[in-house]
Each structure stands twice: as structure tokens, then as C-alpha cells.
């Protein structure tokens, strides 16, 4: 019966990645879909007569690009800038930032060594900041999602909030990296964001006290009625392991239904999402990558589908992005779960994180991703099988209409 109900509610496409979401707590935690880390070999670069020389070969530059212009500007900044002297390393890293920013892709980012170290630290599950993810939507800096019980959420920051001021700095034209640098900071300090809540007309100032953010990527419980609730807050390096612990526990306790809550989950590592989706879809395609050459690559799970026979409802909202959308999209395409809640964020690109020789790093968009049925969700998101609203009034009264609807669907299956 439950399988029949899922098939009736699914909406199949006819054809056939934040936000980069960037963690304001420190750097770009969780927002991108990272598919491994690759240390690139050192590459010596010298310049002669305006030409770029590297590792015995001339770097390929278009004939109408005279790289000597770069050195002309470099020299003038060094000699004439009124607030000089400027450290050459700062100019060098600034130039690399500008090179990457020239792509116009908020998901492709250069990290200098300090920022790269902060990024790595943030993935360990503990960092200092306000605990939220930011991104760009049509050029506007927005909150992708606040982390649950974070200083940002407790201060009233919500998914979809447009950020217009960071303390006294206007965000118009500000890059995500610059915004991150302004918002992050040590615990105990305060940053004030001037935001317009989604659907509102007036701006409000929201002071937020930075703190140590502890990330538990997965939490779970089994209710007295036999329904297991698994919250996935992020797709970190330990998420698949934590999810496995949850699966073992809920199966041992004889769970008869599952609620998977991925609201305000901004995403993370692709491999973690693939492993988790495999608990329903088995050794099938979870996501399709489309590279810059148009070649399609199926990414398959290696799971044993331990949850495929347990009725499942997945809850998502506008703060669900990236790897979260991969899992939700796969379960929707295979009719493995009913997806309820609100339209997701719509991040459909794949980033690769590459460690460079001096400790800096490049996170670069290498592909777009599609659901197993070939749906592109970039800038569109996943449409739930059943949209369930969750208002501020509900929140104030402690009523979670989306969660209650998930329980109702599962109880209907049991004839209750």
C-alpha cells in the first residue's frame, strides 16, 4: 500500500552544483559537493618578457592577452600606492582570488593557506562563528540555512534571509569570501547582520554572538510508536559512519517507519550522500555528473539497501541544498520515499577541492549533477511530493506541521 501511495504522488519528469553555500562560521563548510581531495604537484613559474613559463613549457595564453600588463600593474602598485609598501605575497594571493572571481561562479573559490586551514578545520565538526551558511542568489547575499541551535538560528536568522549589511559594511558587490571574512570571528565577539526576512518588506538588525560550533551531523531516536526519526544536519566526513550507527540501532529496535529530517542541511561531501542514498536504492545510480565536455557519468551506490522495505518520509525545506538534494532527488526518482516540506535551494553543481603545494587550495566547479532520472535542479530545487507549509506562527506555538505530517503519512500506512 505504501509503495503504491508513493508512486501516485511522485511527479516524473519528461526528460532526461551557496549559496555556493559557504559557512559563515569559518569558511565554505558544507555548501559545495566535494568529491575528494587531490594534492597537486609543485609547479615552478617564472616570467620572461611578459611570457608565463612553467615546468619547461609555456602556459597557453591567447595571443591577444599580453601578460606583461599584469607586471606593469604590479610594478605601479608596488611603487606608487599611497598606503604601501604592500607585501608581495598579499598581492600574489589577491591576484589568484581575482583570477578565480573572474569566472563569475560563486561556487569556485581560491583559499590562501590560512583560509584553507580554516576550511579543513571546519570540516572536522568544530569551529568558531555564528553557525550559518551563506550564498548568492541572483547576486544577492542570502542565508542558505542556519545550523540547528546555532547562534545564528537562536538570534532569529532564517533560510532565505537577504543580508544587506554586515556590521556597517554594505554587501552589494561583496564576494562570498569577503562576506565570510567579515562575519567570522572568535567566540565571545558579536557581529550584526542587517537582513530582510523572506516575505518581509522592512530590514531588521540582528546582533549575533559568535561561539564554538559543535557539529553532530546525524542524530536519531526511535519513538514509542515504532517510528524512527533520523536528523541529518550536514554531510561531513563522518556522516556516513554516523548514519550507519543510526541504521544499525533503528533496525535492532524494529522500527516500522522512518522520518528523515534534512531541513536546513546545506550539503557537503558527495561520497557521503551516495553512501546514505544506497541504504534505499542499493547498487543503483544515485546521481549523474555532466562534465564540461558534456560527458555523462553515473555515480552508483554500493549499499545493501537495508532500509528499502521500511516506509520512509523525507522532510526538506528551502535551506536544504547540495548533497541533501542529491539524496532527496534519488529517493524521489526511485519511489523510495515520500518527499514533503518546501522547495529546496537548488544547487546542482559539483566542486572538487584541490590542495596546492604551498598550503593554499582551489575549490573548482567541475560538473553539474542530475538526478537518476536526469532532472537538473540547479537554481530550481527539488519539488516535494507534498508541499507542507511551516509558518512563523507555528514556530512560535511550537507546532512543527511538516514533522507532524510526516508522522501522519506513516501512521496512515499502518492503518492508524
Structural class: alpha+beta
Poorly predicted regions: 1-56
CATH fold category name of the domain at 2-11 and 216-346 and 380-413: 2-enoyl-CoA Hydratase, Chain A, domain 1
Under CATH at level 1, the class of the domain at 2-11 and 216-346 and 380-413 stands as Alpha Beta
- How would you state the average pLDDT, rounded? 83
CATH architecture of the domain at 2-11 and 216-346 and 380-413: Alpha-Beta Complex
Can you tell me about this structure?
- With 416 residues, the chain is of the alpha+beta class.
- It has a domain at 2-11 and 216-346 and 380-413: 2-enoyl-CoA Hydratase, Chain A, domain 1 (Alpha-Beta Complex), CATH 3.90.226.
- It is built from eleven helices and 24 strands.
- The longest helix has 14 residues, at 88-101.
- The chain starts with a helix and ends with a helix.
- This is Peptidase S41.
- Belongs to the peptidase S41A family.
Concise synopsis of the structure shown:
27% of the residues lie in helices and 28% in strands. By secondary structure, it is of the alpha+beta class. The chain has a domain at 2-11 and 216-346 and 380-413: 2-enoyl-CoA Hydratase, Chain A, domain 1 (Alpha-Beta Complex).
Tags for this entry?
hydrolase, endopeptidase activity, single chain, serine-type peptidase activity, 416 residues, 6-stranded mixed beta sheet, alpha+beta, PDZ_6, transmembrane helix, disordered N terminus, 2-enoyl-CoA Hydratase, Chain A, domain 1
Secondary-structure map:
Blueprint: H1 2-9, E1 22-23, E2 34-39, E3 45-48, E4 51-54, E5 57-58, H2 68-80, H3 88-101, E6 109-111, H4 113-122, E7 126-129, E8 132-137, E9 140-146, H5 151-154, E10 162-166, E11 169-170, H6 176-183, E12 190-196, E13 204-209, E14 211-214, E15 218-222, E16 227-232, H7 239-252, E17 257-261, H8 270-281, E18 285-291, E19 296-300, E20 312-316, H9 323-333, E21 338-341, E22 349-355, E23 361-370, E24 386-387, H10 392-396, H11 401-413
Parallel strand pairs: 2-22, 16-17, 17-20, 20-21, 21-24
Antiparallel strand pairs: 1-8, 3-4, 4-5, 6-23, 7-14, 8-9, 10-11, 10-12, 12-13, 15-16, 18-19, 18-23, 22-23
Amino acid at each position: 500500500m505504501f509503495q503504491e501511495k508513493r508512486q501516485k504522488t511522485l511527479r516524473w519528469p519528461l526528460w532526461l552544483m551557496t549559496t555556493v553555500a559557504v559557512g559563515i562560521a569559518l569558511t565554505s563548510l558544507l555548501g559545495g559537493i566535494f568529491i575528494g581531495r587531490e594534492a597537486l604537484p609543485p609547479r615552478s613559474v617564472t616570467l620572461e618578457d611578459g611570457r608565463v613559463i612553467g615546468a619547461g613549457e609555456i602556459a597557453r595564453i591567447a595571443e591577444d592577452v599580453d601578460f606583461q600588463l599584469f607586471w606593469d600593474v604590479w610594478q605601479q602598485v608596488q611603487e606608487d600606492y599611497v598606503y604601501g609598501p604592500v607585501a608581495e605575497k598579499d598581492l600574489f594571493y589577491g591576484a589568484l582570488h581575482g583570477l578565480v572571481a573572474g569566472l563569475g561562479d560563486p561556487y569556485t573559490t581560491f583559499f590562501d593557506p590560512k583560509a584553507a586551514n580554516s576550511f579543513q578545520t571546519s570540516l572536522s565538526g568544530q569551529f568558531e562563528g555564528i553557525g550559518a551558511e551563506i550564498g548568492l542568489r541572483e547576486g544577492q547575499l542570502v542565508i542558505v540555512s542556519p545550523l540547528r541551535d546555532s547562534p545564528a538560528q537562536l538570534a532569529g536568522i532564517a533560510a532565505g534571509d537577504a543580508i544587506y549589511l554586515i556590521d556597517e559594511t554594505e554587501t552589494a558587490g561583496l564576494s562570498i569570501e569577503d562576506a565570510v571574512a567579515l562575519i567570522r570571528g572568535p567566540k565571545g565577539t558579536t557581529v550584526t547582520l542587517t537582513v530582510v526576512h523572506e516575505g518581509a518588506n522592512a530590514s531588521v538588525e540582528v546582533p549575533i554572538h559568535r561561539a564554538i560550533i559543535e557539529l553532530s551531523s546525524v542524530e536519531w531516536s526511535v519513538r514509542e510508536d515504532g517510528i524512527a526519526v533520523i536528523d541529518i544536519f550536514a554531510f561531513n566526513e563522518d556522516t556516513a559512519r554516523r548514519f550507519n550507527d543510526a541504521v544499525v540501532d533503528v533496525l535492532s529496535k524494529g522500527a516500522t517507519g522512518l522520518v528523515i529530517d534534512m531541513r536546513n542541511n546545506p550539503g557537503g561531501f558527495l561520497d557521503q550522500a551516495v553512501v546514505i542514498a544506497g541504504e534505499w536504492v542499493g547498487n543503483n545510480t544515485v546521481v549523474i555528473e555532466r562534465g564540461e565536455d558534456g560527458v555523462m557519468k553515473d555515480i552508483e551506490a554500493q549499499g545493501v539497501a537495508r532500509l528499502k522495505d521500511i516506509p520512509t518520509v523525507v522532510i526538506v525545506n528551502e535551506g536544504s541544498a547540495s548533497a541533501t538534494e542529491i539524496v532527496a532527488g534519488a529517493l524521489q526518482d526511485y519511489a523510495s520515499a515520500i518527499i514533503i516540506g518546501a522547495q529546496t535551494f537548488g544547487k546542482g553543481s559539483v566542486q572538487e577541492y584541490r590542495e596546492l603545494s604551498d598550503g593554499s587550495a582551489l575549490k573548482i566547479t567541475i560538473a553539474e549533477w542530475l538526478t537518476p532520472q536526469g532532472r537538473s535542479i540547479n537554481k530550481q530545487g527539488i519539488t516535494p511530493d507534498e508541499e507542507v507549509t511551516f509558518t512563523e506562527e507555528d514556530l512560535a506555538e511550537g507546532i512543527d506541521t511538516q514533522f507532524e505530517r510526516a508522522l501522519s503519512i506513516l501512521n496512515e500506512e499502518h492503518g492508524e
